[in-house]
């Protein structure tokens, strides 16, 4: 273990230099490719360079960070400073859905899709005020660990593992799907094969070094993903309005879009809030908007792969500061996304629609080949592209925008590298959350408490590979769009985990039976609504006489699960005897940063 | 290790912590739900060249979330120090 990271002080003392140098190196690498492109190097080679070189760097960090130490493997030795944990959380957080699909969703949905922007940022306020510092003080390895301790026994622990597995697995399938799209497009290989190539990229980061390796690759991935997201938008902002701050300039783009909407006869206006397809105000859209915001925010504060990032800071204080850093780093991408979407919309309305179809540039051809994500059909056979003849999937808008806007191909390669970083980093975080819960909570705590360290680490790694392969195989069947799958994951986590975690800390009276009943009720109702409306809509209608309860789409299923979880937990807790004095002391001890955690079973 | 608080002190500490939590929680509700849900009305107002409803959902509330998280970290650290329960 004579690697730079094991050396401790050397590595931790020089984090700024190491990652600063790395970011500089990446920029130089991009500039070199830009020059090569001007010298005539084919696009395909540039795409290959970005994909392979970045995966290579992650693999290198992953191998350097290999470890056989339990604390290093599960919580990165609790040595990650707040700032870097913030970056790692940013990469852990921003997935293929944020990077690849979200701006595309705004492009297609206009204001109504801003629910994603709000929902995926505001949840950190809840993480910061309700959970992160207390979970850090508790100081074990996993989120189910907390449930198992606070609710005395394997019942709550197992419920936690089940919810964690369902939510994180749904989420990881979406990431594999995103990785498949990017590798397929930029390496020019079939989608099904591309998924498994991407899988190697995931495994090489996490398998040898667990949380430690994932942390330091995530920091590296954050740097790449934020650079590559900002470059095309800043570029376009400068090109269109002469100011390199897109967040200030895209108000003008909104006005231009509105003018073009009138010209093109679009009835659903981009900036209008809560409108249906006909452009009229709709209470259904209004309700779905707040429901989605609520589910995504509560889901943020319930997803174990995010919460466990705050187990890795050196102290409670750093955990709190780290939440602030996290939301800042995440904010940089989210408040840029609507600008990205608006510029893409403007480019399409101005420079694509109304062009002769025969003269459309090469990107149309390239993207049409990736699994039906872009269709151009000359409906009225006039050879001119009409708005209704241009059907683009939300999952490729971010990736194709640089080409649509006529930026050099090197920017496309950069964006691909960023999208890949986003998908890989989240996939790694999720994979680790699942494998850790299975190896630590199920195998070690329930099946074989006498297992040796070496054996626990072998089991953890075996599970990691197994889960990854199954997730990739499921993604190969293309179960749904990225953003839908991710939103389901948030709902599942929110309905199952939020109530027991928050009440466990904030309400001493919460009892074991209360928490378990609440988890089962909340998660059960959410899962029922999601699965029935998604897979058996006819049966659902027969049962309730309506397609959807109050028109709420199943991406916000937790709207029904959450109140159930809280009410059931509350009522059942009051009906069962109060937790013991020791348990109440334990809760007190995790409420204060200083001092030891009180004894518990 | 910081000394363990007696019951009265612990109660005071937790009352202060809870008050901070509820304050930030209320502001969180405002910026998550109240402001964005009046987007139709706010959109008739112009702000920095944006319709205000769109601006709040796309930027304004997000900025507020960052501020709330930073505020929470600073204010809670102060409370910890006041009661002497910060880490050594």
Quick synopsis:
The complex is a heterodimer of chains A (601) and B (88). Helices cover 73% and strands 1% of the residues of chain A.
Task: Describe this entry's structure for a reader.
The complex is a heterodimer of chains A (about 600) and B (about 90). Chain A is an all-alpha fold and about 600 residues long. Chain A has helices at about 10-15, 15-40, 45-65, 70-75, 80-95, 95-110, 115-140, 145-150, 155-185, 190-205, 210-240, 245-265, 285-300, 305, 315-335, 335-350, 360-370, 395-405, 410-445, 455-475, 480-505, 510-535, 535-545, 560-575, 580-590, and strands at about 375, 390. In chain A, helix 6 (about 95-110) crosses helix 19 (about 410-445), helix 9 (about 155-185) packs across helix 20 and helix 16 packs across helix 18 (about 395-405). Mean pLDDT of chain A is about 90; it is low at about 1-10. The mean pLDDT of chain B is about 90. Chain B is about 75% helix and about 5% strand. In chain B, strands 1-2 form a two-stranded antiparallel sheet. In chain B, helix 1 (about 5-35) runs antiparallel to helix 3. Chain B has a domain at about 30-90. Chain B is mostly helical.
């Amino acid at each position: 273990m004579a690697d730079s990271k094991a050396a401790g002080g050397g590595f931790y003392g020089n984090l700024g230099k190491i990652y600063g140098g790395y970011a500089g190196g990446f920029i130089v690498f991009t500039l070199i490719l830009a020059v090569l492109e001007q010298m005539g190097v084919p696009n395909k080679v540039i795409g290959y360079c970005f994909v392979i070189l970045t995966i290579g760097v992650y693999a290198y960090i992953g191998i350097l960070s290999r470890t056989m130490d339990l604390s290093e493997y599960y919580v990165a030795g609790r040595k990650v400073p707040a700032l870097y944990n913030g970056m790692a959380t940013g990469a852990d957080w921003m997935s293929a859905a944020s990077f690849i699909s979200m701006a595309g969703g705004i492009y297609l949905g206009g204001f109504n899709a801003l629910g994603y922007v709000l929902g995926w940022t505001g949840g950190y306020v809840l993480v910061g005020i309700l959970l992160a510092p207390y979970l850090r003080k508790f100081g074990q390895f996993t989120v189910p660990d907390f449930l198992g301790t606070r609710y005395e026994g394997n019942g709550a622990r197992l419920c936690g593992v089940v919810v964690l597995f369902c939510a994180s697995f749904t989420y990881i399938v979406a990431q594999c799907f995103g990785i498949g799209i990017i590798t397929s497009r930029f390496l020019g290989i079939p989608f099904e094969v591309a998924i498994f190539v991407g899988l190697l990229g995931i495994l090489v980061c996490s398998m040898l070094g667990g949380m430690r390796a994932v942390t330091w690759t995530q920091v590296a991935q954050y740097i790449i993903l934020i650079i590559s997201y900002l470059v095309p938008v800043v570029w376009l902002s400068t090109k269109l309005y002469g100011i390199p701050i897109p967040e200030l300039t895209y108000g003008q783009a909104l006005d231009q879009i509105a003018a073009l909407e009138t010209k093109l006869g679009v009835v659903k206006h981009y900036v209008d809030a809560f409108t249906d397809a006909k452009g009229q105000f709709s209470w259904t859209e209004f309700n779905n908007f707040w429901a989605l915001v609520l589910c995504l925010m509560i889901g943020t504060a319930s997803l174990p792969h995010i919460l466990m990032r705050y187990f890795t800071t050196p102290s409670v204080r750093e955990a709190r500061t780290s939440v602030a850093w996290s939301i800042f780093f995440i904010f940089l991408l989210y408040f840029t996304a609507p600008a990205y979407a608006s510029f893409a919309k403007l480019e399409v309305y101005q420079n694509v629609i109304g062009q002769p179809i025969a003269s459309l540039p090469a990107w149309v051809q390239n993207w049409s080949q990736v699994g039906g994500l872009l269709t151009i059909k000359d409906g009225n056979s006039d050879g001119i592209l009409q708005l209704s003849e241009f059907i683009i999937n939300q999952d490729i808008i971010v990736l194709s925008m640089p080409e649509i806007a006529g930026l050099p191909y090197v920017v496309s390669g950069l964006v691909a590298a960023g999208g890949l970083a986003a998908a890989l980093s989240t996939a790694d975080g999720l994979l680790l959350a699942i494998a850790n819960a299975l190896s630590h909570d199920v195998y070690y705590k329930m099946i074989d408490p006498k297992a040796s360290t070496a054996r626990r680490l072998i089991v953890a790694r075996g599970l990691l590979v197994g889960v990854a392969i199954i997730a990739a195989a499921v993604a190969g069947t293309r179960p749904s769009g990225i953003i839908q799958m991710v939103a389901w994951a948030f709902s599942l986590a929110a309905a199952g985990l939020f109530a027991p975690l928050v009440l466990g800390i904030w309400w001493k009276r919460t009892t074991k039976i209360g928490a378990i009943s609440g988890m089962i009720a909340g998660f059960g109702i959410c899962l029922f609504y999601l699965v029935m409306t998604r897979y058996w809509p006819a049966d659902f209608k027969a049962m309730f006489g309506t397609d959807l309860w109050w028109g709420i789409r199943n991406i916000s299923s937790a709207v029904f699960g959450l109140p159930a979880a809280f009410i059931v937990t509350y009522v059942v807790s009051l009906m069962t005897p109060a937790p013991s004095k020791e348990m109440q002391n334990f809760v007190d001890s995790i409420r204060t940063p200083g001092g030891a955690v009180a004894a518990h079973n | 290790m910081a000394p363990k608080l007696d019951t009265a002190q612990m109660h005071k500490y937790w009352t202060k912590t809870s008050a901070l939590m509820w304050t930030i929680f209320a502001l969180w509700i405002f910026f998550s739900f109240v402001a964005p849900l009046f987007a139709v009305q706010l959109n008739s107002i112009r702000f920095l060249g944006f319709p205000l409803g769109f601006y709040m959902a796309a930027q304004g509330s997000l900025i507020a979330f960052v501020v709330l998280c930073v505020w929470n970290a600073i204010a809670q650290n102060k409370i910890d120090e006041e009661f002497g329960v910060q880490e050594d």
